[in-house]
């Protein structure tokens, strides 16, 4: 029994430390510790990059040496304006209930905190399908 009590104390201590760590505290509250549950900023990046690969975003041309990688270091900065606009769309969809969030955090002005509000990939894909957004990348 002593060993079981020790484990319980260790787990409780670890959970308390995780919850009190500013960067990781919310991960305890998100399904699967955030795996497959990107925050609004990450979801916006994912969708906008995907839309760019689908040809739905114009005005960003690939360099000659582009290898086709969605992780190319120039891509997200080149799409920064579209990503910022899409963060607002995702936030609006969550606020209106059209996009279900897996974890919501708000500031004192009742605005969603993009880095701490998460959506599941499944709900994000359903929402994209409703809007007819094609997925060019398998994710």
- In terms of DSSP E residues, the strand content is under 5%
Total helical segments: 5
The low-confidence runs, each spanning 5 or more residues with pLDDT under 50, are none
**Mean pLDDT, rounded to whole units?**
81
| Overall tally of domains | 2
Distance between the amino and carboxyl termini? 45 Å
Kindly provide the radius of gyration, computed on alpha-carbon positions and rounded to a whole number of angstroms.
19 Å
- Major beta sheet, specifics? 2 strands, antiparallel
> What structural class should be given to the helix and strand makeup?
mainly alpha
What is the tally of beta strands?
Answer: 2
The string of secondary-structure elements, in order, is HHHHEEH
Describe it for me?
There is one protein chain. The protein is mainly alpha-helical and 139 residues long. The chain folds into 2 domains: 1-32; 36-130, no CATH class. It is built from 5 helices and 2 strands, in the order ααααββα. The chain has helices at 2-19, 40-54, 75-78, 80-96, 121-130, and strands at residues 101-103, 118-119. Helix 2 (40-54) crosses helix 4. The termini are far apart. The model has no long low-confidence stretch (mean pLDDT 81).
């Amino acid at each position: 029994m002593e060993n079981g009590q020790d484990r319980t104390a260790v787990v409780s201590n670890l959970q308390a430390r995780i919850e009190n760590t500013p960067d990781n505290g919310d991960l305890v509250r998100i399904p699967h510790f955030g795996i497959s549950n990107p925050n609004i900023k990450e979801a916006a990046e994912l969708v906008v990059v995907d839309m760019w690969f689908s040809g739905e975003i114009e005005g960003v041309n690939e360099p000659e040496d582009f290898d086709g990688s969605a992780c190319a270091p120039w891509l997200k900065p080149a799409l920064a304006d579209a990503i910022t606009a899409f963060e607002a769309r995702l936030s609006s969809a969550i606020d209106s209930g059209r996009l279900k969030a897996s974890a919501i955090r708000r500031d004192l002005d009742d605005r969603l905190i993009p880095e701490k509000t998460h959506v599941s990939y499944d709900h994000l894909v359903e929402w994209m399908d409703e809007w007819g957004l094609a997925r060019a990348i398998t994710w």
